[in-house]
Amino acid sequence: MSTPVQAVAEALVAAHRQQRTVAAAPFESLLQEAGQAYAVQEEVARTMRWFDRPVPQHWKSGGPSRTGTLTHAGLPPQHVWASPADASGTHFNWRLIEAEVAVRLARDVSPADAQAFDAARTAQWLDGMTVSIEIVDSRWENRAASALLKLADLQSHGALVLGQWRPLEARDWAQQACTVQIGTAAPQSFRGTYALGDPVWLLPTWLRHVTRQGATVPRGTVITTGTWCGMLEAKPGEKVMAVFEGIGEAEVQL
């Protein structure tokens, strides 16, 4: 008999391989805590053979507020692209757009480093930042699933597009402006709308998550830090452009 983790992982693997969604209802009661959801992530990744290294090179992390629970997922490299990206031949069940800021580690981070991390010295641990676009997707039918099932499904990840890297610099994030244009619609503007205030605020929690089983996070690992625009719906054939004033831009053709 399958364990709860195996049962959920098998459903998600089938959804990935068959490029379809699966009903969440039969699995809703199987996962009881976040550790099981992360175990599903790892089991799906092993079965799909996504990663050729102990620690994925690209990650997503984020949360609704500084008092909320942060969630994390390693991202399949075949769906991480440099901007301008062409995703017109890639299957998605949904195409929801998040405009984000990604940062990159300047050094290896061991488990001991992660536990002793000094948030006041965050900039010394990073060597770059860029604009990113996350295409949010789901393997669950109608995107209707519990929080733990969504977390098991890479926190509803579809693909990541990364703009040009630039040196990390101190910014007034409360005044940071961002615009997103989807297709021929008018650009939508956002300012200071990032839920955690500063994109690097989540770094200590994310590092402790990634190193919790003894792994060292390599220099060059990238983390995209969560949305500035909520989730905006896009359709096949549309081009998406995200611009962060003073940082750069990213674009993807759907």
TrEMBL record:
GO terms for molecular function: 2-oxopent-4-enoate hydratase activity; hydrolase activity. It comes from Ramlibacter ginsenosidimutans. It holds the Pfam family FAA_hydrolase. Keywords: Hydrolase, Lyase. It comes from the Bacteria. GO terms for cellular component: cytoplasm. InterPro entries: Fumarylacetoacetase-like_C, Fumarylacetoacetase_C_sf, Hydratase-Decarb/MhpD_sf. This is Fumarylacetoacetate hydrolase family protein. Residues 97-252 form the Fumarylacetoacetase-like C-terminal domain.
